[in-house]
Design a protein that fits this description.
By secondary structure, the chain is an all-alpha fold. The protein has two domains: about 50 residues, no CATH class; about 80 residues. About 65% of the residues lie in helices and about 0% in strands. The protein has five helices and no strands. The chain is elongated, with a radius of gyration of 20 Å.
């Protein structure tokens, strides 16, 4: 006997950020790992100054757990699929984009901006931009953009996550 179930016309998302161990959705292993390393180093250093080498090891373990949770929180706030969709639909309106240039030309810069914002959640653009500039040649891919042309797009994606736009 056939049933008349409504058929959804909404696209099915394949980007569920599945946890590699549990299969649960919403996992962000990169953000969690970045947070774990940063938290472990900070906590280990703080405890180690008081309790010596054993305190450093314990502090690193505790800090990794706490930092991992914080890193997951930062990564949860950044949806790479949503960012890519946003930039692909609006890049041509940005003042630094060359008229008629394809999105593929700017995509590596936007991706670098939002990924870097996640990685350096506790630092400001002014603190991080010299380091980002030095690493741009590794991230540029086939964009063909030198840093002076990519930097406005990287900065724009970075600041979008802070709720600001480059004008």
């Amino acid at each position: 006997m056939a049933t008349n179930k409504p058929v959804s016309t909404q696209p099915v998302s394949t980007d569920l950020n599945l946890d590699p161990l549990s299969g649960a959705t919403g996992a962000h292993p990169v953000g969690t790992g970045v947070g774990a390393v940063a938290g472990g180093v900070a906590a280990g250093a703080a405890i180690g100054t008081v309790a010596g080498p054993i305190g450093t090891a314990v502090g690193a373990a505790v800090g990794a757990v706490v930092g991992g949770l914080a890193g997951k929180g930062v990564a949860e706030a950044i949806d790479p699929t949503a960012e890519a969709t946003y930039w692909e639909s609006t890049y041509a309106t940005r003042p630094y984009v060359t008229s008629g240039a394809p999105y593929a030309h700017y995509e590596p810069a936007y991706r670098y901006g939002w990924e870097s914002r996640s990685q350096y959640a506790d630092r400001s653009w002014d603190e991080v931009s010299p380091e980002l500039a030095s690493r741009w040649p590794e991230r540029a891919g086939t964009s063909g953009l030198a840093w002076d042309r990519a930097e406005p797009a990287v900065r724009d994606a970075w600041h979008r996550l802070d709720g600001r736009r480059v004008s």
